[in-house]
Amino acid sequence: MKNFLVIFITTFFLMEIHNTHASVNNLEAENFVKEITNEGLTEIINSNVSQKEKDERFAKLFNQALDLKYIGQFVLGRYWRTASPKQKEEFINIYRQLNVQTWSKRFDEFKGKEFIFEGTSPSNSANQIFVNSKVPMDEGKPATVIWRVKQTGDKYKIVDIIIENVSLAITARSEYTSFIKNSPTGIDGLINNLKQKTQQN
User: Fold this and answer.
1) Whole-structure pTM over 0.85, yes or no?
2) Could you tell me where the DSSP H helices lie in the chain?
3) 99: Cβ–Cβ under 8 A, 6 or more apart, which residues?
4) First and final CA of the chain: distance in angstroms?
5) Is 11 among the domain residues?
6) Exposure class string for 69-95: b at 16+ Cβ within 10 A, else e
7) What is 36-62 written as a DSSP string?
């Protein structure tokens, strides 16, 4: 009886793991990113408008495509749990603004280029998957761009962008948690620091 119970629990546990990772629809996740890049990102990059207009368009796309609350929780790490509701809201808002400015200019490197998709790769995180793409450049090897996509129900959101092995989320987490740890004003100090950076861009 004991052996039967162990086998039953183990089988149930393995089924749960399988169902968790199988819940992400590979094709739908890839198509979601394709739509974001082909109908949104590429159009913005190649548009003949001012940087301000480009940033505004990128902000709209950024807000639609990315799960900023999820990313915010990740990049603040353990400090998210101790942050007040006001600090969380302020951080997400300034983090959004900074990333719009940063990535709007970063993706300008791909102006006139085409994203070529190369399928998906599994993620160890539940309900997440990596969508792989590359961008042929004028010189050297193609640039690799990997999108971490999270599925919630039938909705998809990007939770990280990895360009040439540099992760937006992991880089921010390392930088921000270190700043908070060493700042006498903690999270408020980080928020003010990010505000200053947005004014400089």
Assistant:
1) no
2) 2-22, 26-36, 42-45, 51-65, 68-76, 79-82, 85-106, 168-182, 186-200
3) 62, 168
4) 67
5) no
6) ebbbbbbbeebbeebeeebbebbbebb
7) HIIIIIHHHHT--S-HHHHHHHHHHHH
Nearest to 160 by CA among 175, 171, 144: 171
State the total domains in the chain.
1
Residue 56 lies in a domain: yes
Beta-sheet pairing, 143-152 with 128-135: antiparallel
pLDDT at 199: 87
Phi and psi at 15, nearest 5°, equal -65, -40
CB 154 within 8 A of CB 162: no
Q: What is the CATH number of the domain that holds 107?
A: 3.10.450.710
The DSSP code sequence of 98-112 is HHHHHHHHHGGGGTT
For residue 118, give its domain range. Answer: 25-200
**What DSSP designation does 140 have?**
S
| Per-residue model confidence as pLDDT tens digits over 134-185 | 999 988 899 999 999 999 998 999 999 999 999 989 999 999 999 999 999 9
Q: Which 3 state secondary structure label does DSSP give 83? A: coil
Residue 185: inside a domain, yes or no? Answer: yes
